[in-house]
Amino acid sequence: MKYSGRVAFIAGGTGIVGSGCARSLLKEGAKVAVSSRSQQRLDDLKKSFSADLQKNLILIAEDIGTEAGAKKILKILQEQHGGVHHVLSAFGKWWE
To answer: Distance between CA atoms of 70 and 29, rounded to whole angstroms?
Structure first.
C-alpha cells in the first residue's frame, strides 16, 4: 500500500472534502488523524468507515484554530504515533 507506515493529519477531516481524503488515505494504508472541535462530528466520521478502516483512524477532539489546541494535537501525534508525515488542510468554508 502506498502510504503504509505513514501518518497523515487532516485539519477539517470531518467535512465532505476532508472525509473523502481521509477515506482515500486509509485505503492506501495510512494512519489518518482527524481533529475537530465536535466529538459528535468525529463519532459520525468514524461510523462512516468500515471496521477495517477504523483501525487506522485517529480521532482528536481539539480545536486546531487555537495555539493551545494545535500544540495539543501535535503532542498527541508525536508521543502516540511517532509524528506526522503528511498534513492536509481541508477546514473552513471554501465557498465564502
So the answer is: 25
The domain locations on the chain are: 7-89
Q: pLDDT digits over 19-65, tens only?
A: 999 999 999 999 999 999 999 999 999 999 999 999 999 999 999 99
Instruction: Count other Cβ atoms within 10 Å, centred on residue 73.
Output: 19
49 neighbors 23 (Cβ within 8 angstroms): yes
* Grid cell digits, residue 91: 477546514
How far apart CA 88 and CA 81 sit, in angstroms, is: 17
CA torsion 94-71-73-95 (nearest 10°) is 0
* CATH architecture classification, 7-89: 3-Layer(aba) Sandwich (3.40)
